[in-house]
Amino acid sequence: MAVGEARPGYELWRPNREKSASLTTRILAVVLLVVSAVLMLIVLLGGWDVLVGGSTYGIIGLVMVALYLLLAVMTWRWSRGALSLTMALSVLFGIFFTVGASSWFARDKPGFTESALPADLIGLLVVLLVPVQLALLIACAIGFQQEWHVEEERPIGSGDGSGQSDDVETGSLAGAS
Q1: pLDDT band for position 119 (50/70/90)?
Q2: Extended beta strands in 90-155, E state
Q3: How far apart are CA 77 and CA 56, in angstroms?
Q4: Strand runs (DSSP E) across the chain, as ranges?
Q5: Among 32-41, 115-124, 129-138, whose mean pLDDT is lowest?
Q6: How far does Cα 14 stand from its chain's mean position?
Q7: Which of 38, 67, 85, 124 gives a 20 to 30 Å CA spacing to 109?
């Protein structure tokens, strides 16, 4: 029998996805991913003219924004692997943002090319991205511990939405572990 398939007469049930803590964590992770993507896009487009490496790094940045939006969709759909990849990228981007923030504040001297947005504003947005990445890392770590991937089989029609159904023959709760 393949993974993700139930025996005839049974359905797959994912009890940890029904918990309010899991739903809240999922929503928080998706919101933080979208906020990160929007802030990164503003910084990228606002500083496009002064990117070191030109449009090549700009295109790489756009791919990273698209990747964060894809991870938001995958997290919303409970896809496996999205949380672990998001945690890895949030650590990586957190380091990049921490290191790169000071360079935007150093651009207020004469001789530097002006960006579309003021350099101080871009620097502030980059500084704001650091705690957003930290919050994203924590939210995904909590979601990872909630074991969203756990699947159980139960007879079709036995679920009432609460995750527990009485088994008359054994006298136990089918949803209890």
Answers
A1: confident
A2: 152-155
A3: 32
A4: 10-13, 152-155, 166-167, 172-173
A5: 115-124
A6: 20
A7: 38
